[in-house]
Amino acid sequence: MKICPVVLSGGVGSRLWPLSREHFPKQCLNLTDSLSSLLQQTLLRTNRLDVQSPLVVCNDDHRFLIAQQLQDIGISKAKVMLEPVGRNTAPAVALAAFEVQQTGESDSLMLVLPADHVIRDTAAFEQAITQASVLAEAGGLVTFGIKPTRPETGYGYIKAGQDCSVEKFVEKPDLATAQSYLDSGDYLWNSGMFLFKASQYLAELQQYRPDIYAAVELAYTQRTEDLDFIRIGAEAFQACPSESIDYAVMEPTLNAKVVPYDGDWSDIGAWDALHDYSDKDSHNNVLSGDVMAESTHNSFIRSESRLVATVGVNNLVVIETADAVLIMDKDQSQDVKKIVSRIKAEGRQEHMHHTTVHRPWGTYQTVDLGPRHQVKRIMVKPGEKLSVQMHHHRAEHWVVVSGTAKVQNGDREILLTENESTYIPVGVVHALENPGKIPLELIEVQSGSYLGEDDIVRFSDRYGR
């Protein structure tokens, strides 16, 4: 029986701010591997298994980012289901189960994987899946338990019984309880990875949470396809209760099974976890980017855009990006959320996106911003085109740095190459396209009374925005 990998990619990862942002979440970042993101590693991890094309369930706002990440690793047949709002894991897995039943082989197995886990021991991972497949084909709802290596208070636990049965699920414990779990050898960390038949999961969801089942079923029947994406009924899904798969199904079911996985594993939940997981120098430091460290120990220091230097510090996390710098005691990594909450409360934007913003056609980066002007560096991928649009409040001046630009400027259509420019007055309909084979790079200078991204009137857009 073939397996369909189902990757859940709905989270934001605010404890990894300022690198993880709402519009570029942690699963899309290259945190542990300079060549691939956590999401890409999750998908590549299933390559040697006998699997169908994967299914990714993600936030609607991340759709083009996810699609690009799949394309970058050569995955062209994946399906991407879009959640109009987040409703936790039980509804997300149900959406995937309906789709797997609709289009997969008869009663396919679903391998449910969070997009932000790191597993390097692929042999142990594959062995655990092989063992779990036998249980799942027999009707078990299988979860994977991680053999604990420390008294961790940030994870839920599973007490394993005989023959892979689950004796009980346990909430996140205090330190003393976690230590007792570790000492007993009877408990496993709850990984959030699962394997089961799509039909079995839906049957048990209908039994234990018929309200969730009914809402998701209705939303799925209202689905439409948009480019390479599957959109579901937004109103029906918004009415769905928000619940985790653990509470909705795994705890009440009589068919829960657990398979131990004893290879390396981390969910990279915060900066201290990333420090623990990463390779370190002789002073127990993790240094990334343009960093100079003197008399520095036990620290995680990452530079994204400039030189970061430390002298005589210990146990720090220092994260530098183009628009924000985080400095904190590594032992307080969980409290980054407090800063993110303050940023939101004060109406700032640093929790939303980086200075470099990704779009389906390429990227733009804000270089300078004033009361009546903004300067952007724009990159358009070969063959891509921005929407045909106009602005009520701003004029734009485009200067090509490299590549070729095909420009609609009012009634004119012109080609611009390096060092050539065009001016677009307020209210003039315009569009930008890269007809060439190399990336188009240009500088855009905006001027006007209002420079917000919502001052865009779109007349046509190949990306359906």
* Domains, number: 3
* Name given to the CATH homologous superfamily of the largest domain: Spore Coat Polysaccharide Biosynthesis Protein SpsA, Chain A
CATH top level of the largest domain is: Alpha Beta
Oligomeric composition of the shown chains? single chain
Main sheet attributes: strand count, strand direction, barrel closure: 11 strands, mixed
Give start-end ranges of low-pLDDT stretches: none
State the CATH topology of the largest domain. Spore Coat Polysaccharide Biosynthesis Protein SpsA, Chain A
Mean pLDDT figure: 93
Strand content: 25-35%
Radius of gyration, whole Å: 24 Å
Measure the end-to-end span.
39 Å
The backbone outline, from C-alpha atoms, is globular
Helix content: 10-25%
Count of helical regions: 11
Instruction: Find the structural class using helix and strand composition.
Output: alpha/beta
The number of distinct β-strands equals 28
CATH architecture of the largest domain: Alpha-Beta Complex
Q: Could you describe the 3D structure shown?
A:
With 465 residues, the protein is of the alpha/beta class. It has three domains: 259 residues, Spore Coat Polysaccharide Biosynthesis Protein SpsA, Chain A (Alpha-Beta Complex), CATH 3.90.550; 61 residues, no CATH class; 105 residues, Jelly Rolls (Sandwich), CATH 2.60.120.10. The protein is 23% helix and 32% strand. It contains eleven helices and 28 strands. Strands 1, 2, 3, 4, 5, 6, 7, 8, 9, 10 and 11 form an eleven-stranded mixed β-sheet that branches. A hairpin with a 4-residue loop joins strand 16 and strand 17. Helix 3 crosses helix 6 and helix 6 crosses helix 7. The longest helix is centred in the first third of the chain and has 16 residues. The protein is globular and about 75 Å long.
